[in-house]
Design goal:
Length: 276
């Protein structure tokens, strides 16, 4: 590729597919992105690619949920003249639910990044939080929609989202789990989870963008643009798939995938000594 990129196209394609799909499926994007370099000899993709991937997935959410985004923006505008409507409330709930993740993200980035990137942690998290997702989906009622959200419920989902910094947990998975536990319909649990991705991904993208600025890294521009564009497409596909799937089915296939992948990882780590 031109523009100073040393990454092969296949690596860019794989990273974009993994980031775009797994960001919105309850199977953990961070866990999969840790497994890629662990299972291949590929070099680290660099900050520019990370930023582009985050921007791409953010754009995908904004495109798919443009009506909710527009409703929140108009609600915030009305808030300036003292009128509170559903759009302003939803924006407020997303803000409340984002605060725990911001605090946790700062602490993790400062003190625990390398510790949490161990492959066996991914395996255990895939299994443990997969089982929790299955339990929540089995016992959770299906009586609430996003419009029924309360401050306490938003904070509960937000506290759960903070656990997503453990690779293998899945930000989408743990927030849907929390929403199901407090009685939200599967489709509505996914809707709130994806809307909550807007401030979460934006914050992560801004932080990585700041790190990119500080590093002075100017290479891989073409690769970054390609990655971002591919992440928009794969992200839109993943969101549309989940929203349609959860209208008529449950989370069981994703739980089975998590258990199988986690089991394989732990077998390779403890029985075969891989990545030890």
């Amino acid at each position: 590729l031109p523009g100073g990129s040393s990454l092969p196209f296949i690596q860019i394609l794989v990273l974009a597919i993994i980031q775009g799909l797994t960001e919105f499926l309850p199977v953990s994007s961070s866990g999969h992105l840790i497994l890629v370099p662990a299972a291949t000899s590929w070099e680290d993709q660099g900050l520019a690619i990370d930023v582009a991937a985050h921007v791409g997935t953010l754009v995908a959410v904004l495109i798919y949920f443009w009506r909710d985004v527009g409703r929140m923006l108009s609600g915030l505008a009305r808030l300036l003249v003292g009128r509170v409507d559903g759009g302003a409330k939803l924006a407020g709930f997303l803000l409340i639910a984002t605060v725990p993740a911001l605090a946790t993200g700062y602490l993790v980035d400062r003190y625990a990044v390398e510790i949490l990137r161990r492959v066996e942690i991914v395996g255990w998290a895939l299994i443990g939080f997969g089982i929790l997702l299955w339990i929540a989906d089995r016992i959770g009622l299906t009586i609430r929609r996003v419009e029924h959200m309360t401050i306490g419920q938003a904070l509960f989902v937000g506290l759960a989202q903070a656990l997503a910094f453990i690779p293998g947990t899945s930000r989408a998975g743990i927030t849907m789990t929390a929403a199901r536990l407090v009685g939200y319909e599967r489709h509505e649990a996914a809707r709130f989870s994806f809307l909550l991705a807007i401030p979460a991904i934006a914050a992560a993208g801004l932080w990585k963008g700041y790190q990119l600025y500080e590093s002075g890294e100017t290479e891989q521009i073409d690769a970054a643009l390609l990655t971002g564009g591919l992440c928009i497409l794969t992200g839109l596909f993943a969101i549309a798939f989940m929203m349609q799937w959860l209208k008529r089915a449950n989370f069981t296939p994703f739980v089975i995938y998590r258990l199988l992948l986690g089991g394989v990882i732990l077998y390779l780590v403890y029985a075969k000594g891989w990545w030890a």
